[in-house]
Amino acid sequence: TNIEKYKKLQKEAMDLFMKMSPEEREQALADSATQMQQMDPKMLAEMSSSMMRNPDLMKKMMDGQSSFLLQMSPEDRRAMIRAQMSAQDYMSPELKAMLQEDAIAVMKEMGKLPPDFKIPDNPQQQPDNPQLPPQQPQKPQP
Q1: pLDDT in tens, the chain (142 residues)
Q2: Among residues 52, 77, 84, 142, which is most buried (max CB within 10 A)?
Q3: Rg (CA), the chain
Q4: Cβ distance 77 to 69 under 8 Å?
């Protein structure tokens, strides 16, 4: 079946990846990122949607990610978080605003924000706003 073929190809790809040098792995990951960029965005959205519709699959993926994160050094975890947060620098203002709006809507649906929560027009000028966490001073990076 197609599923069996896919599983076999994935295992072969993972076995090959594990045999690569660090430099080869880096190149392979870069090539994978290029392939992802060339995919139809609708197909990527469908892949994400199908994963999210399956709670067992989501739990399995989160368990794997948790295990992975627990095996990393604090320095590597922080570097990964830093890279993920820095990725926002490459987003357009429109995309940032859209994602912020969606995140707030989801957090309200999940009960993690009060239903009347609104982002102030300029949160930096309103440090006493009880709806926002206190701002931590930024430490310069060495």
Answers
A1: 999 999 999 999 999 999 999 999 999 999 998 998 888 889 888 888 888 888 898 899 889 889 989 999 999 999 999 999 998 899 999 999 999 999 999 999 999 999 999 887 765 544 454 554 554 444 444 4
A2: 77
A3: 20
A4: yes
Q: Would the pTM of this model clear 0.85, i.e. be above it?
A: no
Q: Which two tokens stand for residue 28?
A: 């392979």
Location of structure tokens 């399995």: 60
The dihedral over CA atoms of 42, 45, 46, 52, expressed in degrees to the nearest 10, equals: -170
Task: Compute CA distances 79 → 6, 53, 83, 90, whole Å.
Answer: 32, 31, 6, 17
DSSP conformation class of 131 = T
Q: What 8-state DSSP symbol labels residue 112?
A: S
Tokens 């009880």: give the residue. 130
- Residue 67: burial class (beta carbons within 10 Å; 0-12, 13-18, 19+): exposed
